[in-house]
Structures are given as C-alpha cells and as structure tokens.
Amino acid sequence: MDTRISMITLGVRDLDAAIRFYRDGLGFPKMESPPEVAFFTLNGTWLGLYGLESLADDAGVSPDRSGFAGFALAHNVESEGEVEAILSRASEYGAEITKPAAHTEWGGYSGYFADLDGYQWEIALNPHFWVGPPKTGG
C-alpha cells in the first residue's frame, strides 16, 4: 500500500457553520465544491466537510456516534482491483468490512472498513480526484 491519507472527511451537523469555521476561522483555502459538501486544499491532502447523517449513510453505519466517530479517512487508489485488495488485506489484519466495495452514485468504486478501534476508512477509486498528492502550480 502506498501510504498516504488522501482526504479527511468530517461529518458535521451544520455545514454552513463548519465552512465558516474552517474557511474564515482557520483560513483553509476552500475549493469549488457541490452545495452538499465542502472541500479544502491542505498540504498533501484534502479536508472534506459533509453532513454527519449523509456521511454515516455513505459508510453504512449509524450517525449516533455509537458505531461512527463522525469522520472517515479516505485512501484513493488507481483501480477497482486495488480497492478490493486493500479491503481484503485490512480484513485479514482484523478490520471489519462495514460496506463492501461497490460502484458509487458519484461515478467511483469504493468500500469501507473499520480499523481495530472502529475508525472508518474508505478505500476508493475516485475518477474526480488525482490519486497522488495535491498538484500545485508550476
């Protein structure tokens, strides 16, 4: 596995307030984003903000925080085969597959696992994002 965190997505109760906090309060540069989600460029990764219930639904878990901490870590890869292989390897090492890999409504292919402490990881082929570090000018 090429180790990196591609995107950190936080499930938030009030998206507009969260956008103001990260954009205005912390000065994170906001990318152009669909209205139901916000993306910020960070050095080497992205931060995403998404409704808590919508993110929990995407991961296939309850939003009540008993089985979902309110965020998911994402690792983007280059093929469906890599999605399957990483999920399989995670399972072999004790992770629970919380959502088997499948084609998504946003045009990708992804699945989720919970690590040994229950933190959600999405492994995804996302045709809308470069799988390497964020590209910078030049």
Write the layout of secondary structure elements.
Layout: E1 7-12, H1 15-25, E2 37-41, E3 46-51, H2 52-59, E4 71-77, H3 80-92, E5 96-103, E6 109-114, E7 120-125
Parallel strand pairs: 1-3, 4-7
Antiparallel strand pairs: 1-4, 2-3, 5-6, 6-7
Structure summary:
This protein is an alpha/beta fold and 138 residues long. The chain is 23% helix and 32% strand. The model has no long low-confidence stretch (mean pLDDT 88).
Q: How would you spell out the order of helices and strands?
A: EHEEHEHEEE
User: How many distinct beta strands?
Assistant: 7
Biggest β-sheet: strands ordered side by side in the sheet? 2-3-1-4-7-6-5
Taking the alpha carbons of the first and last residues, their distance comes to 28 Å
**Contiguous runs where pLDDT drops below 50 for at least 5 residues:** none
Question: Helical region count?
Answer: 3
Number of domains: 1
CATH level 1 class label: Alpha Beta
What fraction strand?
25-35%
